[in-house]
Amino acid sequence: MATFLYKLGRFAFRRRHFVALFWVALLTLAGVGAASAPAAGSTSFSIPGTEAQKAFDLLEQRFPGTSADGATARVVFKAPAGEKMTDSANKATVKKTVKELADGSEVTSVADPYKANAVSKDGSVAYASVKYKVSGMELKDASRDALEDTAQQARGSGLTVEIGGDALQTTPETGSTEVIGIAVAAVVLVVTFGSLIAAGLPLLTALIGVGIGVSTITALANVLDLGSTTSTLAMMIGLAVGIDYALFIVSRFRAELAEGREREEAAGRAVGTAGSAVVFAGLTVVIALVGLSVVNIPMLTKMGIAAAGTVAIAVFIALTLIPALLGYAGRKVKPAGEKSKLLGGARAARKASTGKPNMGTRWASFVVRRPVAVLLLGVVGLGAAAVPASSLELGLGDDGSQPTSTTQRRAYDLLSEGFGPGFNGPLMIAVDAKASDSPKDAVSRVTDDIKGLKDVVTVTPAQFNKSGDTAMITVIPNSKPSSVKTEDLVHSIRDAGVDIKADTDAKVLVTGSTAMNIDVSQKLNDALIPYLVLVVGLAFLLLIVVFRSILVPLKAALGFLLSVMAALGAVVAVFQWGWLSGLLGVEETGPVMSMMPIFMVGVVFGLAMDYEVFLVTRMREAYVHGEKPSQAVVTGFKYGARVVTAAAVIMMAVFAGFIGSSESMIKMIGFGLAIAVFFDAFVVRMAIVPAVLALLGKKAWWLPKWLDRVLPNVDVEGEGLKNLGGGSKDTDPDEDRELVRA
After folding, report:
1. How far is CA 150 from CA 91, 154, 602, in A?
2. Mean pLDDT over residues 483-490, rounded?
3. Which of 212, 316, 360, 393 is the most buried (most CB within 10 A)?
4. Rg of the chain's alpha carbons, rounded to an integer?
């Protein structure tokens, strides 16, 4: 592989006009496709195989036109102090509001509070329920605007009016997070390379790659039912890895220049060595993202595949466009250790002349001398950070986890105040009595049994369909939607349904947003172990091929698990226990988002392997070329530590920008990924990895002879490049024709 990539790098450097034109044309084509593609609606949301989804499908079939999974809104009214909602003036305002709400094109029904018994006992709070034809994720912006405008008009009468429910559910705006990440990346790259031109290349190529990826997703969004969250994830991951991969190759190019090679030869060798690491690092990210399909949540599968496609584009751009742009840059990209005059080039030259080892060399030398102490400190530290993870509680956020500044949160609080906390999470019971001898008796049995359960406040009368064989029952719990008691109630109803079916042949299914959240959490929890086995297993096999070792990939996988557990512990401490919540702007503590563990495993595993592959391939390269194991560790850090540090800081900046989001879930994802990268890059890869390799010595690179014969030799360390090149600018033109044909 190293030889092929070496030729590819030289080809791209020499035929830079052709390569640049190709990528510009591809970017233009993707942009035109995105601009001309029909506008895509919000992606549909379904959770195949869950009881809540089966109930939704049943109700849609037996109650045609009712849109069982349609969006709902609760317009909550509160009377001024000293007044009641039953006063004539307030009543007139509510009735006018209800009439205006019913005029919406996507509205199926609006319940008048005074006819639906939706006024609190003390008369201070009332609400109007609005039902829509489509789900909250598919609702048009015009319908949301009409809802908010109507509520605003009602506020003019002196009433407090807030809106709850999933009708206002939209994709959270991330604001300027990408800009913040790019700005920090630019500063880090300038400091790392000491050159504005060299720093600009990774940024430029990353933006081109993200532009192609996101534009392609936009162009295909309507056809493939891709939501806006898909492009957000692709942008976040694509930007991070795009900068990292380009950073690796530009850094190696400058190192080759420092060894006295001509620029074309340096470009070829940079792509042949660092490019090999980029290919395999990219493969691990792709495996992790595509592996999300094992969860069997269509939306998550599409997000993973789309993001994986963007990562693949980032890899191809790093291998071809970077050497092409290095050809354009010429002598403006300086050898390693040199800086431009503007950024202190003279001082850097004087410092280099002293021969003082860099920080990476000094740190690695220290670790090699004290491997046991460093290893114990790293493992104990991460172990301590992981302790809170033992108290992990999973769930999906509701309006109660929103900031108090939002209308959804204020509506949630008003309903809790007027009707009790469980009123915000009603359970919908679907009773399929088609196979029962007496459907009405079966439904009556269901109602009576549910009334006898603990934590039930209200059970509404059953509503039958036209055929009289299916009924809907609404149950109001005594606890808030995200509480453990409500989850226990859902399980209790389902357990009771088993006995009811045995006695009456009627199926009892629990659904509604609260039950759906519980089912999604369970589905994600059940999928975590198979996902870990698949992703870590495939990556383990891939790393065996890369490093030609058993212990190095095993150490990489175990180190990753340690960093993820520590990151989950930090998330629990902040978002569940409330530690440092004020500093991070966490207004409401509660269960950790159900998607967090599996999402963190997928994203962080891929990114962690980037650092592992780049850092350890440098060590293996030194070892293969004759250095002792301990010295190879130091050499790997001498050339790789600065780059890995820069890559990790950039990654953390991109993710940390999301901590400022007003959405608690986005805030949690940003914090979790940022702290996971910190733990993995600076504790696992920078401390535990060199300590373990120093302790293992030659054993680290042991591979059974039979396995060595079976495995393909991908030559990541560039052993095959020893007899190639030599610094001449002249090359065999047959290489060009060979690569064009390939």
Report:
1. 16, 6, 43
2. 86
3. 212
4. 30
